[in-house]
Amino acid sequence: MDAGARDAVRRRAGYRCEYCLLHQQYSAFVHHIEHIAARQQGGRDELANLALACRRCNLQKGLNVTGIDPVSCKTVRLFHPRRDRWTEHFRFSGANVEGLTPVGRAAVYLLAMNADRRRIPDWARMWPISSPPRDISRWSPPCFRAWDLMAKL
Questions:
Q1: 3 state SS of 52
Q2: pLDDT in tens, 91-133
Q3: Distances (CA, A) of 91 to 37, 94, 99
Q4: pLDDT in tens, 18-42
Q5: Beta 96-99 vs 90-93: how paired, if at all?
Q6: 99 touches 107 (CB < 8 A)
Q7: Which of 47, 51, 107, 119 could form a disulfide with 95 if both were Cys (CB 3.0 to 4.6 A apart)?
């Protein structure tokens, strides 16, 4: 994959993880360009099969293209950033991402979006509690709520 394709994926995603919406600037690690369908499963290096994913979402997703809906206990396809709209499958509920559909619930569960480590963003562990970032204009919704949680610790 060439640098132009990687840059196009980042720009298209607005520099946010296309699964949990964490903005790149609030992550301690560079977001990954991930294959929605892994190369091992026949996925190609074309823009329609590439998504921007934070390190945690990408590592949790691995080769999976399906997951278990924790409500119905059925196997369902995972959220597909090129085919699905995020707001149809997820919403923010406080500091958590809530799955609204079987596809969304399976993704939240498989990607462990609401694990304790994920609710407090990477940047929050690097900043003293008394010094939040000055520029909140590009703040990710879960990060804003996570800051409130950090202040209560």
A1: strand
A2: 988 878 999 999 999 999 999 999 876 655 544 444 444 444 4
A3: 24, 10, 7
A4: 999 999 998 889 999 999 998 888 8
A5: antiparallel
A6: yes
A7: 119
Kindly state the tokens that stand for 96.
């958590």
Take residue 73 and report the two structure tokens written for it: 């206990």
Per-residue pLDDT, 131: 45
Is the Cα dihedral 55, 75, 104, 15 positive or negative?
positive
Full residue range of the structural domain in which residue 113 is found: 3-152
pLDDT of the residue at 94: 80
Closest CA to 38 of 17, 53, 16, 23: 53
- Spell 12-27 as b/e; 16+ CB within 10 A means b: ebeebbbbbbbbbebb
Please state whether beta strands 50-53 and 90-93 pair in parallel, antiparallel, or not at all (unpaired).
unpaired
Torsion angle in degrees (nearest 10) through CA of 132, 137, 140, 141: 90
- Pairwise CA distance, residues 113 & 19, whole Å: 9
Q: Count up the domains in the chain and report the number.
A: 1
| Residue 55: other Cβ atoms inside 10 A | 16
Task: State the Cα–Cα distance between residues 49 and 109, nearest whole angstrom.
Answer: 22
